[in-house]
Write a structure and sequence with these properties.
Tetrahydropterin Synthase, Chain A; about 20% helix; seven-stranded mixed sheet; alpha+beta; three-stranded antiparallel sheet; about 180 residues
Amino acid sequence: MTLYQHQIRIRKEYLKFSAAHLTVFPDGSAERLHGHNYTTQLILELRDIAFEKMIPFAQVKKAIAEICGTWDEKVLLPTRNPFLKLSSPEPDEVEFLIGKKRYRIPLEDAVLLELDNITTETLSFEACRQLVQALSKTQTIELMTTLELRIEESPGQGSSCRWNGPSTLPEGSRA
């Protein structure tokens, strides 16, 4: 049994994204469409810091940067919200209806996420899921005991999602 647990924290200025969204509430009401300059922070926990088990930071930062890049300067839309109706009136457009409001934007300016809402909670979950998926293609994931990804929509306001180690990887993944 190991007596020590080690943490690595990664928070870089460039690991961020600016995106628009609206949050829908359980009664069907919604915030106005607005945006945030989101920041990310990653905490990796390790049991072993031996030389041969070093975590390659560049690999981890690249995976986070790819997620941020996909969401940067986009309108983030949930595909599974019962009150938000999505359609594609033209092949290169997306239209969404919420209450009595209708929005129509170029499809290239939107990211459709298989979520029921767009909040820091759901974004931290989705980013963590995507990060674990990306890292599971490498040996890096096997070196971690936990991975926690935090997304803040403003300084001091955000949420985290925690993945609890290689034993929780989906079937068929590397680890």
